[in-house]
Design a protein that fits this description.
7 helices; 9-stranded antiparallel β-sheet; Rossmann fold; about 500 residues; Porin; alpha+beta; 3 domains
Length: about 500
């Protein structure tokens, strides 16, 4: 009978945990699902809202039937969760009877992946004017190559198309035409960047306009399969100075700042044109070169006006070339996030509220148990009895902590130790957990050693790393003093789920 009662209690505890997890979720997508009334109609998810996750859809999303269930796709998905979408998203249904969320373990976790159905083009526009200097020019080259590596590491082979423009004057502009990003083309892109050389003048507007023409011609000849969509044009441009060479008699005479005719022409194209049916987005990175007066307030204003993308203008005004690589990496990550899609699957025939949550890395309400071994020394200070001599002490024990809040867990430590004789230790403990799955454990209790001839207060601290390992230090003071160092391994509560 007791066994059956224990199983019932355990099941109730686990059920309560599953029910409550979605209620406490800090990263989720939620909506109301409606099953179609007639054949051929799509499933509809409406009243869609989220927390800690962004995507491009409005408050209504339509799904379609697949072999894996009803598929819903959230495009251009990004999250502020430290571990991203790496562990997937769990599916919950709302239970009207209980008024809580219930996890559906038979539904596979939603996953985010680089969209296989979308194609995008990127043009890198790199200033090669002599004002940069050889040392900083090498940093620019490395940052551009690192940008390509970031895109290649996180994207599908061949879905991203990259071209490069290296410019100084209009007459000294070199182009690496757009190509699908693969291992082979990536090497050729790096080789092209390495061959770029410094020269006089700065035809920044012309270089951007040339990159747009290159994308336009490429998109016209690009064949996109039935299961794919051309969905983005991106210009990533860097300069260290004002444009002083762009001119086209058909565009008009030059003028200063935003009144420059070529500037107006390029800005209008970025803001209004579409290539391959998709809008143009631009990122501009700028460093004040030697030929830009430090008191000039128009420099950033003019270049920022050429930066435009769906998440708001993104202009990078950098203080030096050492910051270029981080800026390029940030832009590359942002672009990949735009192309992530969350693929969710729902059982057919279900109506009601649904929620997908990211739970990896959550330390909230997670039982912890670890096994620990330690070694140290025992001393009887001032003892006149010759038999009370100190020596080495060895201990083995268990740490346990039960969750109280998202941060705090309470439990204890028990230890069996051996010096000249067997002893025992116990201390209540508090465990303070952090979002990265590390923790600090603190406790005050009792330690008896050497057949309990040494008794005293025990002070113990431990640091649990993000790996399963944790490290301990303890000190007891009383009729005998001990100091011990140890290491432990997490048995339960170490797996991020």
């Amino acid at each position: 009978m007791k066994k059956h009662l224990f199983l019932v209690a355990a099941f109730a505890l686990l059920s309560a945990t599953a029910l409550g997890q979605a209620d406490r979720a800090k990263f989720y997508i939620e909506g109301q699902l409606a099953t179609p009334n007639r054949a051929g109609e799509p499933w509809k998810l409406y009243n869609v809202h989220s927390q800690g996750i962004t995507f491009s859809e409005s408050d209504t999303l339509y799904g379609h039937d697949t072999e894996r269930g009803v598929q819903l796709v959230f495009d251009h998905a990004a999250t502020t969760h430290p571990q991203g979408f790496g562990c997937g998203l769990k599916f919950y249904r709302w239970q009207n009877n209980s008024g809580r969320w219930q996890v559906d373990s038979e539904v596979e976790n939603a996953e985010a992946a680089f969209s296989q159905q979308k194609v995008m083009s990127i043009m890198l526009v790199l200033d090669c004017s002599s004002s940069i200097g050889k040392g900083d020019f090498e940093k620019l080259k490395e940052a551009a190559k690192q940008f390509i590596e970031v895109i290649a590491a996180k994207s599908s082979d061949g879905n991203v198309h990259i071209g490069i423009v290296g410019f100084s004057s209009m007459n000294n502009t070199r182009t690496f035409g757009l190509q699908p990003l693969t291992k082979e083309s990536r090497e050729r892109m790096g080789e092209f960047i390495d061959t770029l050389q410094l020269s006089n003048r700065t035809a920044f507007y012309y270089a951007i306009n040339h990159s747009l023409n290159t994308m336009e011609s490429y998109a016209k000849g690009l064949r996109v399969g039935k299961d794919k969509k051309y969905d983005g044009n991106f210009v990533i441009a860097f300069t260290d100075g004002y444009d002083n060479d762009s001119f086209d008699p058909q565009i008009g005479k030059s003028a200063e700042g935003t009144e420059h005719s070529y500037f107006k022409h390029v800005n209008q194209r970025i803001m209004t044109e579409k290539i391959g049916g998709a809008p143009i987005e631009s990122y501009v990175l700028a460093i004040r070169g030697n030929d830009v007066d430090r008191s000039n307030t128009d420099f950033e204003r003019v270049l920022a006006a050429l930066s435009h993308n769906s998440s708001g203008d993104k202009f990078y005004s950098l203080s030096n070339f050492d910051k270029l690589e981080a800026a390029f990496e940030e832009i590359g990550t942002n672009l990949i996030n735009k192309w992530q899609s969350i693929y969710c699957y729902i059982p057919r025939g279900y109506d009601g509220r649904v929620r997908w949550t990211i739970e990896c890395g959550d330390v909230a309400r997670k039982f912890f148990m670890g096994a620990c071994a330690s070694i140290g020394g025992l001393s009887y200070k001032g003892a006149e009895d010759p038999s009370l001599q100190g020596g080495a002490i060895f201990g083995a024990g268990l740490d346990m902590a039960f969750p109280i809040t998202d941060v705090l867990s309470l439990g204890g430590y028990v230890e069996l130790n051996v010096s000249r004789g067997v002893g025992f230790a116990f201390t209540p403990e508090a465990m303070f957990s952090f979002p990265n799955n590390s923790a600090i454990i603190l406790g005050v209790g009792y330690r008896g050693t050497d057949h309990f001839r040494s008794n005293g207060f025990l002070f113990r601290a431990a640091y649990k790393h993000t790996t399963p390992w944790y490290f301990t230090a303890s000190y007891s003071v009383g009729t005998g003093n001990t100091f011990m160092l140890g290491a432990g391994y997490t048995l339960f509560g170490r797996v991020i789920n």
